Amino acid sequence: MNIVSSNNLHEMAKICKDLNELIVNKYSQDTPGLISLIDAQRNLKSISFASYYIKKEREGTYEELSNVLARKGCTINNLYSSNLVGVISHSFLSSFINLKELTIYQYDDYKSEKIQEFQQYLAISKFPGLQSLKIGGVSCFKELAMLIEKTEGNLSYVYIDMSNKDAESTGMVIKAIADNCPKIEYLSTYLGPKDLIYVKPLLLHCSKLSRLRLKNLYENNNIGDELLDILTSSSPLSLNNIKLSGGWKYSINSIERFFESYRGRKLLEFGIKDNIHEDNFTIEHIKIIRKYINEGVIGHTNL
Which Gene3D superfamilies match (predicted)? Predict the structure, then answer.
């Protein structure tokens, strides 16, 4: 595999000053040449750190990267990073005043105080023009809700993925979207038993919502029928792609009511099962779903 040296990057910085997009793979520590290349750009719009797992012994070697990102905050509108949470200081986020797309994936295990530092900067950052938000591996529902509340109605895509069973405040994100995101089209997040009160306002206030993914972080959270009833009574006409996962149980009656509400406005895709909780689905459940597929109410399902 070819690796660009720091000296090569220094030379590039002398002649390349109008890059719009920069993708850095396998970034592992502050590199003077890369810092100078970023610094030289006059209108850098998109920057991506597509790193793999970073060794912990290199913690604390990213100060210059954080500083140079802050200096370019006014022009950058798309940031992607993987496995930099807990390694780099995210103080630069507050400088990204024109950010439109934010993607942060973190699937490495770092000290809790490092994660807290990221959460703190996420909570105080403000991205009024944000359109797309994707977060994976970091439990930060409260901070994400605070961030969403400061957007100005342009957010259309929100994806949250994590496996932390101790996650709290999951419903705050749904409430923040219901209150502040009339243009939301895609939402993938988690739903706890106390969060049902936020689902109906979400459906009523977000008339452009077309794809909804709701996942269950909690065991013994049997709110399946209540959730389907809310979807039955309040789904906007635009909502035609729904996936529910995580062990919720559903009665035949609630499933039938839900599908009947979509008769005449086809449900393009419907997912209601995962491999871990197959026992929740009987032959009768599958028969009902197949019936509505044959009648053209459902386009595709994972059953």
Answer: Ribonuclease Inhibitor (3.80.10.10)
